[in-house]
Amino acid sequence: MKVIERILADAGIYPIAGVDEAGRGACAGPLVVAAVILKDAFSQELAPVRDSKELSEKARELVFDLILEHALAVSIIEISPQEIDERGVHAANLDGMRRAVQGLSVDASYVLTDGYAIPGLGIPTLGVWKGDQVVHAISAASIIAKVTRDRIMRELDTTYPGYGFDRHKGYITAAHTTALETLGVLPIHRKSYSNINALINIID
Question: CA of 27: how far to CAs of 61, 91, 174, in Å?
Fold first, then answer.
């Protein structure tokens, strides 16, 4: 799992930051980006760390605390639905990744990201295909981002009851669509997304 990190470590490159996001495909709530530098990516204590999608919600919460315990630095950036609508999700995501790396309390010597590299960082960066599955630091970042975002969506469920944000976390489901049609579009919905925009036009 840790081949890329091992190659970099053997070359004397350290510290290495992993970066990932959660909520890119959701039509409600923020996009959350996390950057993580692990003290030792090869520690046996970090064996439970894996792609956040492979873990249950309960397991993610436990591993979240484990990562914080074994991290050298963690940075979390929240990008609002309004910023996503203004800039587009891809541009907002890239900027969030830059901000997350720059927000680390320790300067990274190399940055590994899930899928594509981050332009404009000023330090070496590599996009890794399925990085959240094959790079421990990226897996850790995926868990930090996912757990943080899920907590935000559970809070939003109490602010906006009836939409089911505690269950679908802002992704589109049949129940979410029904709630939108019945209760309307909220400020936390991404109005640039086609399904939300279509509902706005119907309601208007």
Answer: 23, 16, 13
Rounded Cα distance between 145 and 21, Å, is 6
Helix (H) and strand (E) counts for the chain?
9, 5
| Spatial distance between the Cα atoms of 196 and 204, rounded to a whole number of angstroms | 12
Structural domains in the chain plus CATH codes: 3-159 (3.30.420.10)
Torsion angles phi and psi, residue 21, rounded to 5? -130, 165
Q: pTM surpassing 0.70? A: yes
Work out the percent of the chain whose per-residue pLDDT is above 70.
97
Terminal alpha carbon distance of the chain = 51
Distance of alpha carbon 144 from alpha carbon 42, whole angstroms: 18
Beta bridge partner(s), residue 15: none
Rg (CA), the chain: 18
pLDDT score recorded for residue 204 = 39
- pLDDT reported for residue 2: 63
DSSP 189: B
Q: Which of 22, 26, 30 is CA-nearest to residue 155?
A: 30
Write the pLDDT tens digit of every residue in 124-183. 999 998 888 889 999 999 999 999 999 999 999 999 999 999 999 999 999 999 999 999
CB 64 within 8 A of CB 142: no
